[in-house]
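Task: sequence design from structure.
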């Protein structure tokens, strides 16, 4: 009898397990079930966003984040500020290893991560209202790899010419006489010695210390960092040697140009800018980020009696060649990681679209001096009014759209750029012949390039 009872119990369990569960219709769902499903359906998607922008740049970014969060209810962007681009890279490497990635990053070595297959193509998540055709041409070139848009431009920078229009006008010249580096050097007899009321012009031009301005000149002259096949360092070829040797002569032999170097932090930069502001040089080569500071400094100098008139233009060409300066573009990118949902990636792209729409990219530019990423800002009423009070503020945008090329990505992790920087210092500061310095630099850089290619 006991065995029969056990068998009956087992059968009852089996039958119960095979019986379909009772399904509740929508009308029969409890209030708690309905609320839970609604919460899941309407859950806010969190977008963790890493950037390394501080000061006014960081404040401008946070203002856009706050406005985006207030503009809709589906996503919430949470900005995480890191100390530098190097810190972004270090933290990203750790995040990839742990699969705890942010949904969006701006800054850092995006090309390095993309080459390792660790970046999602931005265009795969791009909303319909992201207008690619409106992006400044130079930025779009940098954003597209192998025909696909991997990155979305945030803002950019490219070195410009800041010059004293009052002095240039006094010589009977105008901005067209700044068309080439040779024509600028040719102005030396006309401008050196002219009074700026408190000082006199001592030099026709002051390039900024470092290899950046030299690279821009050499680029216009056809110089490139490495060969097209990526195997040979070419910073000692004739286009580079010609440029750097001529600059050496202008600085050390003709004494019509000069550079400030050394000092603490950005001391050399401000000394260069001050020589232009306070009437010791016709002009200098600087960043779009200088614009606000430089404009206010010139206004103050004029009030103090100095003869100056603020003006900015794009860089010149070398000889008969068109300008071809480099530009740096800060790029948004979406990391590729298993911890990120498709909704988070779509939300990241939605935020980027909002942050870089015409109004926001214009506002960011007006606040910071850096280059907006959309050509349509030139038709925006607010930006048109801004240009009336801020002469030539669109010079960098025009330069990047018409002339500039994306900056060289060093496959060695910086060895080629460092070798060039050392060589330029030897020429500009120590007066060494350009050929000697560049040959040595190329030899050192080639060893590192060979190592990098071997380890691929």
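Answer:
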């Amino acid at each position: 009898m006991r065995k029969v009872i056990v068998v009956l119990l087992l059968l009852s369990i089996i039958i119960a397990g095979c019986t379909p569960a009772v399904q509740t219709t929508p009308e029969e769902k409890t209030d708690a079930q309905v609320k839970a499903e609604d919460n899941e359906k309407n859950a806010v998607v969190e977008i963790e966003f890493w950037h390394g922008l501080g000061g006014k740049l960081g404040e401008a970014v946070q203002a856009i984040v706050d406005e985006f969060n207030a503009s809709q209810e589906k996503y919430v962007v949470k900005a995480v500020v890191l100390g530098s681009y190097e810190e972004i890279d270090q933290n990203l490497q750790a995040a990839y290893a742990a699969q705890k990635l942010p949904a969006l990053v701006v800054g850092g070595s995006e090309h390095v991560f993309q080459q390792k297959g660790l970046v999602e193509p931005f265009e795969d998540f791009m909303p319909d209202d992201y207008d690619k055709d409106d992006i400044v041409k130079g930025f779009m070139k940098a954003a597209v790899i192998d025909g696909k848009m991997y990155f979305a431009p945030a803002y950019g920078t490219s070195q410009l010419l800041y010059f004293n229009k009052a002095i240039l006008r006094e010589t009977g010249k105008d901005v067209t006489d700044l068309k080439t580096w040779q024509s600028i050097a040719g102005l030396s007899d006309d401008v050196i010695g002219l009074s700026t009321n408190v000082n006199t012009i001592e030099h026709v031009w002051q390039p900024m210390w470092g290899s950046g301005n030299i690279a821009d000149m050499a680029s216009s002259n056809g110089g490139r960092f490495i060969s097209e096949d990526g195997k040979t360092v070419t910073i000692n070829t004739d286009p580079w040697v010609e440029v750097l040797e001529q600059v050496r002569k202008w600085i050390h032999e003709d004494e019509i140009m000069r550079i400030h170097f050394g000092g603490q932090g950005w001391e050399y930069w401000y000394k260069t800018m001050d020589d232009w502001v306070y009437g010791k040089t016709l002009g200098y080569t600087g960043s779009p980020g200088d614009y606000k500071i430089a404009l206010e400094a010139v206004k103050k100098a004029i009030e103090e009696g100095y003869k100056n008139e603020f003006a900015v233009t794009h860089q010149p060409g070398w000889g008969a060649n068109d300008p071809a300066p480099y530009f740096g573009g800060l790029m948004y990118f979406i990391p590729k990681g298993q911890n990120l949902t498709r909704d988070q990636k779509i939300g990241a792209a939605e935020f980027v679209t909002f942050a870089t729409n015409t109004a926001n990219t214009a506002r960011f530019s007006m606040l910071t001096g850096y280059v907006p990423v959309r050509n349509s800002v030139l038709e925006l009423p607010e930006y048109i009014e801004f240009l009336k009070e801020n002469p030539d503020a669109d010079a960098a945008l025009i330069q990047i759209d018409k002339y500039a090329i994306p900056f060289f990505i060093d496959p060695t992790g910086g060895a080629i750029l460092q070798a060039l920087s050392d060589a330029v210092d030897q020429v500009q500061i120590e007066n060494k012949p350009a050929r000697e310095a560049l040959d040595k630099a190329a030899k050192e850089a080639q060893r590192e390039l060979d190592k990098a290619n071997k380890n691929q």
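Confidence is low (pLDDT under 50) at residues 1-27, 32-39.
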